[in-house]
Design goal:
mainly beta, four-stranded antiparallel sheet, three-stranded antiparallel sheet
Length: 145
């Protein structure tokens, strides 16, 4: 599934050569003043729980290279993103709950490009007290069935 979440239709989409696949075209809600761009590759072994809840100082854009990841950001339902699919998150005050390997029997690998505010870390962990205070902003959890 490609993420083509943008308002209206961009003319540049029509001008792409047939060899180019548009993965996502998003307009983040903000860009940090003087932001730098950082690209990383994350490789989780089978069943890895991913990074604990955290936030980024700016938006992040990703693409799953291999496997599948369980992805969840504040206010949006958890979803599984498979190899060949793109994702993004707004950053800023929004909590990134999970980026776990959704596969128990294979590794998963994904590329992330983040726009980071000057002097800010790549991510800031969220403590248990803040998670509790903001619990009402988290989308309902899937039920075991």
């Amino acid at each position: 599934m490609t993420d083509k979440s943008h308002a209206g239709h961009d003319a540049h989409e029509d001008s792409l050569p047939p060899e180019v696949t548009l993965l996502q075209d998003v307009t983040p809600p903000f860009l940090p003043e003087g932001a730098s761009s950082i690209s990383i590759i994350i490789e989780w072994p089978p069943g890895h729980p991913g990074t604990p809840p955290h936030r980024h100082s700016g938006p992040a854009f990703g693409y799953v290279l291999e496997g599948a990841i369980r992805f969840e950001v504040e206010g949006k339902p958890e979803r599984v993103i498979k190899a060949g699919e793109a994702f993004w998150e707004a950053g800023g005050d929004v909590i990134h709950y999970q980026d776990a390997n959704a596969l128990s029997d294979a590794p998963s690998k994904f590329l992330v490009t983040m726009l980071r505010a000057p002097g800010e870390p790549l991510l800031t962990f969220v403590d248990a007290d803040e998670l509790q205070e903001r619990a009402h902003l988290r989308a309902p959890r899937p039920t075991a069935g």
